[in-house]
Amino acid sequence: MSNPQPHLRGRGARSNATGRYESRLREAFDDGWTEADAALAPLKTTVTPEAARTIITHNDSPDVGFDSSINPYRGCEHGCIYCYARPAHAYVGLSPGLDFESRLFFKPDAGKLLERELSSPRYKPDVIHIGGNTDPYQPQERRLRTTRAVIEVLQRFNHPFSIISKSALIQRDLDLMRPMAAQNLVRAAISITTLDRALARSMEPRAATPQRRLEAVRRLSEAGVPVVVMFAPVIPGLNDHELEAVLEASAAAGASAAAYVALRLPLEIKDLFQEWLASDHPDRAQRVMSLVRQMRGGAAYQTEFGKRMKGEGPIADLLSQRFRAAKRRHGLDRELAPLDLSRFRRPPRAGDQMDLFAAG
Fold first, then answer.
1. What is the distance between the alpha carbons of residues 269 and 275, in angstroms, rounded to a whole number?
2. Distance between CA atoms of 11 and 86, rounded to whole angstroms?
3. Selecting from 3.20.20.70, 3.30.1380.20, 2.40.160.40, 2.60.40.10, what CATH number does the domain 39-333 have?
4. Is pTM beyond 0.85 here?
């Protein structure tokens, strides 16, 4: 485990250890100036355009719930300490720690790339999931509008999609989602991990407050968009006691269904998460990690399909039973209708033969 840097306000990670693929390592150390360093200016966020050749990615994982996805951003300013996407920053030579939440990348041509791919005669429509890696509505989206450009294309093509976020900014695009929902072309998932504002600020420092996420559930539902509330991740000994309360509040806000995922700690996330626990929750750090290992066969994480999302053992089984009971009690256990693939249409482009008839 690397030595943590002074806690930077508004950031989740406590360190910025070198990515696992780098030949040179960097590590923070106490040089006697720690108190002075702590007063330095906050870490600034940088956003760099990423030159992508395609925008739709595909996977064959049996436990993620989608085959096709779009990720407008790499890295995430929300800074959620548990984020399973953190290790991916090592692929671009950056740290899964503070770099992940402060050195971001976006795809400025996302809308154009999507239009090109959907326009191909070889393309066969499949539900596209937006945000399977990092949040498509993180703070930079207000300015960059990359996610909105993607949804605008999907609307023009009558292409069904699902989207997940923990940001109230998702409400901005209700003008696009509302008419698509009327045609069964969109579904949203809102992540609510706690109703405790202090805990949310600690583990998700730049995400919307729990109350604003519940308001997003309400507004989406009122607009006809089916909403699945994600109680994810479930962290035993930290937020698992809130399971029933989160589902009750979500149902009252109009959610249609609910799901959960157990805490996942692959690769660098294990050390980052334990640093954060020791910093923010020292009184329960050992107990939390003990319970996590009891759900993971004695390890901090399991990679096997069928186990990595829910864990195993008595604690995992009890959590599953509690979740099923709470879903039934609050009417969140009904199956949602599949999104409609039959409405997909390639809109005519300037110069197409249809223009000749329109001109006449």
1. 10
2. 14
3. 3.20.20.70
4. yes
